C-alpha cells in the first residue's frame, strides 16, 4: 500500500512557531540533506507535469532537499523527460503519463517497471503540478491516488477544483491516505503564513482576527511560461468571491486596484482582485470574517491589458480552455520577450487586522518564481513524508494538513533563497 504509512511518523518540534522576524535561510542553514524518518527515507515520488516549469522546479527542489528520494518525472514529452532526468542525476527516471487518462495514471502510480533490475515498486507520493486547474471537470489524479493508496499533494490555484478535491476527504480517510490540495506557493505557503498570523494573534492579543488580505506580485509570468499565462486568462473569466464581515460578496475580476508596498527589493505595486481559493478556505478554516485576495504584475501595461480583457471579452470566452489556449499561443512569444527584461521576481504579503488594533504582516519575496514555487511544493512533500499530514484531504492552513508544530519548518524550507522573509511584523 504505497503511502499508507506516511502519516504515522510525526515531526518532532524543533522550535516554537512564533516568528517575530525571520531571516532569510541559506542552503547551509536549512541544509540540502533533509533526514526523513526511516519508513519514508527512500520514498518514490512521482511529479506529474515534471517536464514543465512548475513540476520541473519541484523535482529539482526535492532532489536538493533530500537526496535519498527516488524521483519519477511524469509527463507526455519523453525528450523533455530525459533531459530533466539528466539534470536530476541519480535516483531519478522518466515515466510517460497522461494526467487525463485514468489507466495511464494508475499504471504510473501503482507499478514501476525497472528494465535493469526487473523490479516492481509502488509510488509513495504523487505531486500534481500539471496545470492549469481551471475548468477541469474531475480530480482524476487525486482519484487515482486514492485508488492506488498513494499520498498526494497538488499545486491547485482554482477555487472550484480545490473544493472538489475536498469532497474526497472521507474517501481519503477510509483509504488511510494523507492529501493536501493548494500546496504550492500561492495558494499554499501563503495559507500557512495566514494561519501563523492568526494563531499568533489569538495567543498574544486580546482582540479577535477581523480582516485577512492576501496580496501577490509577480514580474511578467514569473518565468513560468504558458501555464501561468493560461491560468491568468482563465481567472479573468471567474467572478471574484470575497468575504465582508462574514457575508460572501461577488466582485468583478481585476477590479478594486490598490497600491501595496511589498518591501525591500519589490517596492510599491498595483494589485487587483482575483478569485483565488485561499479566500474561501481561510475564511472557513481560520474563521476570519473579512477576506480578499489581489494580484498584480509588471510591466504596468500587463495590468492594463488584463483589465481591458476583463471588460471587453465575454466571460464565456475566458472560461473556455480551448479558446484560452489559442490566446496563449498568440501572446506567448510577446510575453517571453517581455519576461526577458521584466525578470521573474515574486512577492507575497499577508495582512491581518484584529479588533484591538493589532495589525501584523508576513512578507515573502524571491528573485525567481520558477525556483521558489519548486521549494514551496517540495516543502509540502517533505511535511507529508515526515508525518505532518493526517489521512484525508486538507488545505494547508488546516492543522490536519500541516500540523502547527511543523509550520515553521515548512516556511523555512519554502523560503530558501528568499531575499526578504518576515513574519508577525
From TrEMBL:
<dbReference type="Pfam" id="PF03435">
    <property type="entry name" value="Sacchrp_dh_NADP"/>
</dbReference>
<protein>
    <recommendedName>
        <fullName>Saccharopine dehydrogenase NADP binding domain-containing protein</fullName>
    </recommendedName>
</protein>
<dbReference type="InterPro" id="IPR005097">
    <property type="entry name" value="Sacchrp_dh_NADP-bd"/>
</dbReference>
<feature type="domain" description="Saccharopine dehydrogenase NADP binding">
    <location>
        <begin position="45"/>
        <end position="168"/>
    </location>
</feature>
<dbReference type="InterPro" id="IPR036291">
    <property type="entry name" value="NAD(P)-bd_dom_sf"/>
</dbReference>
Amino acid at each position: 500500500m504505497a503511502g499508507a504509512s506516511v502519516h504515522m511518523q510525526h515531526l518532532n518540534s524543533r522550535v516554537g512557531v512564533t516568528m517575530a522576524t525571520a531571516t532569510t535561510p541559506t542552503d547551509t542553514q536549512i541544509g540540502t540533506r533533509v533526514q526523513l524518518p526511516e519508513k519514508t527515507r527512500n520514498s518514490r515520488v512521482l511529479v506529474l507535469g515534471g517536464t514543465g516549469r512548475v513540476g520541473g522546479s519541484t523535482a529539482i527542489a526535492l532532489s536538493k532537499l533530500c537526496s535519498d528520494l527516488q524521483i519519477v518525472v511524469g509527463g507526455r514529452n519523453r525528450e523533455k523527460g530525459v533531459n530533466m532526468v539528466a539534470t536530476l542525476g541519480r535516483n531519478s527516471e522518466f515515466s510517460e503519463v497522461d494526467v487525463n487518462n485514468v489507466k495511464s495514471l494508475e499504471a504510473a502510480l501503482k507499478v514501476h517497471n525497472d528494465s535493469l533490475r526487473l523490479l516492481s515498486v509502488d509510488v509513495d507520493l504523487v505531486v500534481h503540478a500539471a496545470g492549469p486547474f481551471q475548468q477541469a471537470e474531475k480530480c482524476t489524479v487525486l482519484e487515482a491516488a486514492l485508488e492506488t493508496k498513494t499520498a498526494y499533494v497538488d499545486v491547485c490555484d482554482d477555487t472550484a477544483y480545490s473544493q472538489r478535491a475536498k469532497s474526497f476527504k472521507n474517501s481519503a480517510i477510509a483509504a488511510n491516505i494523507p492529501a493536501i490540495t493548494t500546496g504550492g506557493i500561492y495558494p499554499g505557503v501563503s495559507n500557512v503564513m495566514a494561519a501563523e498570523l492568526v494563531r499568533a494573534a489569538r495567543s498574544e492579543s486580546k482582540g479577535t482576527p477581523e480582516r485577512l488580505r492576501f496580496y501577490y506580485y509577480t514580474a511578467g509570468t514569473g518565468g513560468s511560461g504558458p501555464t501561468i499565462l493560461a491560468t491568468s486568462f482563465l481567472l479573468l473569466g471567474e467572478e471574484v468571491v470575497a468575504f465582508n464581515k462574514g457575508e460572501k460578496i461577488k466582485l468583478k475580476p481585476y477590479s478594486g486596484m490598490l497600491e501595496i508596498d511589498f518591501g525591500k527589493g519589490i517596492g510599491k505595486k498595483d494589485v487587483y482582485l482575483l478569485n483565488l481559493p485561499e479566500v474561501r478556505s481561510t475564511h472557513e478554516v481560520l474563521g476570519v470574517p473579512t477576506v480578499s485576495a489581489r494580484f498584480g504584475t509588471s510591466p504596468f501595461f500587463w495590468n492594463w491589458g488584463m483589465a481591458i480583457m476583463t471588460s471587453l471579452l465575454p466571460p464565456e470566452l475566458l472560461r473556455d480552455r480551448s479558446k484560452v489556449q489559442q490566446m496563449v499561443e498568440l501572446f506567448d512569444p510577446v510575453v517571453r520577450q517581455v519576461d526577458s527584461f521584466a525578470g521573474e521576481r515574486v512577492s507575497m504579503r499577508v495582512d491581518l487586522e484584529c479588533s484591538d488594533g493589532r495589525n501584523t504582516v508576513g512578507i515573502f519575496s524571491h528573485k525567481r518564481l520558477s525556483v521558489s514555487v519548486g521549494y514551496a511544493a517540495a516543502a509540502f512533500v517533505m511535511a507529508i513524508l515526515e508525518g505532518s499530514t493526517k489521512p484525508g484531504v486538507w488545505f494547508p492552513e488546516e492543522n490536519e494538513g500541516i500540523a502547527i508544530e511543523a509550520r515553521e519548518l515548512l516556511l523555512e524550507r519554502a523560503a530558501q533563497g528568499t531575499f526578504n522573509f518576515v513574519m508577525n511584523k
